[in-house]
Amino acid sequence: MLTDPRLASLYDIDNPDGPDHDHWRRLADQVEPLTIIDLGCGTGLLTVSLASVARRTIGIDPDAGMLAVARRRPEAENVEWRLGDSRAIEESGVELVLMTGNVAQHVGPRHWPGTLEKVSAALSPGGVLGFETRNPDARAWRGWTPEATCSTRETLHGKLTEWLEATEPDQDGTVILTAHNLWSESGEDLVVEQPLTFRGLEELVEDLAAAGLSVRAVHGGWDGEQFNAASALIVLTAEKIA
Predict the structure, then answer these.
(1) Phi, psi of 68 (to 5 degrees)
(2) Which of 198, 135, 151 is nearest to 171 (CA)?
(3) What gap in Å lies between CA 15 and CA 69, rounded to an integer?
(4) 163-196: pLDDT as tens digits
(5) Are strands 94-99 and 213-219 parallel, antiparallel or unpaired?
(6) Angle ∠(229,20,5) on CA atoms, nearest 5
(7) Local structure of residue 4 (DSSP, 8 states)
C-alpha cells in the first residue's frame, strides 16, 4: 500500500492526539511493558509518545506512505519502524500489542484469524492486546453519505473538497468505504476505497478465544464508559492465556 503523500500529510490534522491516545497511554502505564508493538501504527503519532528509554517500541504498518511520515516525525529514532502487517512481527515475550485507530476493521475476514494468532504467539503469558472497533449496532456507515460528509478546505497542496460514500455490510460484515478527494486546481478526484469489517462483541470474544486470548475489559468509550448496544465503539483489552 502507498497512501498519496498529500493525504498522508493531512492524516494527523484529521486524526489528532486526543482521548483515544490518552486511553492507550494509560493502558501502557498500567502494563509497564518492556516491549510494545503498535500494529497498524500509521503516521506514528501515538507510537512515538509510547516510546521511552525503558522500553522497546516497534511500529508496524503496511502503508509505505504513512510510514514515510512516521519516520520523519520528531523522536522517530526512538521507534523501530517496519513495513508490513502482523507477519512482520518477529518477537516473542511481548507484554503489550496495540491496534488503534480502528485498525482491526482494516483486517478482512480472511486475515483476521491469522492476525490474532500472530499477535497471541508474540505475547508473553498474561501479555495484553488492546484495540477498538466500531460497534456494528451503531451503523456508522449510514452516516457516510456525500450529503453528510462533503466539505471543502484549504491545504498545503491547494483547495480540497472531500466526501464519503459507503455500501451496506456484506455477509461478512464488510462495508466498502469510498473517499473522494477532489483537488480544485487540477480537477483530480483522488478516489480511495477501503474495506472495513464490522464485528460485534460476541464475535470478537469468540475470535479472541480461538487465538488463546481472554477478554479482560470491554468499554464503550475512552473514559471507561460501560459498553451497550448504543455505544459507537467497542474498546477491548484482552490478555494471553497462560
Answers:
(1) -60, -40
(2) 198
(3) 14
(4) 999 999 999 999 999 999 999 999 999 999 999 9
(5) unpaired
(6) 115
(7) -
